[in-house]
Amino acid sequence: MLGNLLIGLREGLEAGLVVSILAAYVVKTDRRHLLPQLWQGVLTAIGISLAFGALLTFGPKGLTFEAQELIGGGLSIIAVGFVTWMIFWMASAGKRLAGELRGLIDGADGTRWSIGVIALLAVGREGLETALFIWAATQAAARSADSTVDPLFGALVGLLLAAALTYAIYRGVVRINLSRFFTITGALLILVAAGVLAYGIHDLQEARLPGLNTLAYDVSAWIGPSSLLGTLLKGIFNFSPSASVLEVTAWALYVVIVGFFFARAAAPQASSTSPARPLTSVGVRSDLVFLPPPRCWGGQPRLVRLHR
Amino acid sequence: MASLGLSACTDNAAPASVNDPRRLTVSATDTACQLSAITAPSGTVTFAVTNNGSLVTEFYLFGPDGLRILAEVENIGPGLTRELVLTAPAGKVFAACKPGMQGAGIRQEFTVTDSGEVALTGDEAAMIALAAEQYRLYVRGSGGGVADRHDIVRRPGQGRFGRRGPRPLPRGSGLLGAGGNRG
């Protein structure tokens, strides 16, 4: 039972973490009206995964290994794209929030559906594998010969634990002070997304890409993949006890590049909007940022004009 | 409702699996990896892997080099049966259970005999090679035509794709639209 519990816990965490941060963001920025879109995305992903998994398990045709890896790996990499976009979206929104310009945040029409899409991808990318696992456990419970409900019970307890942990993370994240909220969630998301990217590349390496056996490191002797620690690290950061050079390279490049641009985007307003360096010392004064720009300027307040 | 669909399917699958040499079973424990047969005819082969041990296991089919993964099924928790389906070309491969999801796994050789049904990878490779050769000949033929008609003479010893790039194709030859001159 423990083995199946840990699988459920890991897969549940992998799916739930991005959703919990997204939910925290929506709540934190006073946009609870977007929560239905979020839940729609989650439920759609679960529904599609369970249905497709059932079709493959009980139907006449299975899915070849390659196709399954390409689905999992491909969706993971698409999910990374969306999460990356979300990181910067949050960074810019956070910057404006910090400047007390709430009213200007995202009139963007894309926001409504994009929240649903991100939730859909975050849950759906590994949803099929989880569904296949759940259906296999169901089969074990329902088979006539030596039926056992142990695996199904373990898997469901694991998923429930993952849900509870995800909720705890959400509560913890929501409590973060607004001034640090976007920096902390952004940094957390960068690490999570980098892990998902490495995972996606691992899947693609298993299916097609070369270099799977060129390992960068192997610490599975210390952090066993079936241990609780290994499960939590894998579930949250997609940490793998042994990883190929390509995986590690992709992970490092993602963290460095996205981290750099995130740090720049999250930095005080003056550095990104004012071209004139001498104004910086004035520009960072928050009392000047408070001035709402005239409507005709559209969007961003321009500090430069204020001082001309 | 689920149990209804389930029982219907086991009824369908059970008689077929008895005689079908392409449906194999694997009993995996923490220390052993027992296959119902060590050979199968090429084609769509299914391995139903049952974990009778206490550790979570994985089942792999490696290529002849023992490194490249042909197919894999993960997350086979204790008590579960999961299926691995693959289109197997003829040849020697390695089957492996990986109890605890780490290490090289418990390996053994597995032979896929040539049933004449699938040689998909070989066919594809042959078709690609044939297409490439035909294209090469076609380009050579077209290039020769240009040389004949426009007195563009290739000097002996000068490579086809020398510094000036590929030779221009004749105008209106149909290939690459109206003349692929890069000039």
What does this structure look like?
The complex is a heterodimer of chains A (308) and B (183). Chain A contains 13 helices and 2 strands, in the order αααααααβαβααααα. A two-stranded antiparallel sheet of chain A has the order 1-2. Chain A has one domain (2-291). With 308 residues, chain A is an all-alpha fold. With 183 residues, chain B is α+β, with helices and mostly antiparallel strands. Chain B folds into 2 domains: 2-116, Immunoglobulin-like; 119-183. Helix content of chain B is 27%, strand content 32%. The longest helix of chain B is centred in the C-terminal third of the chain and has 31 residues, at 120-150. The model of chain B is unreliable at 1-17, 144-153 and 173-183 (pLDDT under 50). The interface between A and B is large, with 39 and 36 residues.
Tally of alpha and pi helices of chain A:
13
Strand content of chain A: under 5%
- Would you list the SSEs of chain A in sequence order as H and E? HHHHHHHEHEHHHHH
What kind of assembly state do the chains in view correspond to? heterodimer
Number of helices of chain B: 2
In CATH, what is the homologous superfamily of the largest domain in chain B?
Answer: Cupredoxins -  blue copper proteins
Number of domains of chain B: 2
CATH 2nd-level architecture of the largest domain in chain B: Sandwich
The rounded distance between the terminal residues' Cα atoms of chain A is: 70 Å
Low-pLDDT stretches of chain B are 1-17, 144-153, 173-183
Q: Categorize the overall geometry of chain B.
A: elongated
In total, the number of strands of chain B is 9
| CA-CA gap between termini of chain B | 70 Å
Largest pleated sheet of chain B: 5 strands, mixed
Largest interface, chains and sizes: A-B, 39 and 36 residues
How many domains would you count in the coordinates of chain A? 1
CATH class category name of the largest domain in chain B = Mainly Beta
Kindly state the percentage of residues in helix of chain A: over 70%
Coarse morphology of chain A: globular
Element string of chain B (H = helix, E = strand): HEEEEEEEEEH
Task: Give the integer mean of the pLDDT values of chain B.
Answer: 73
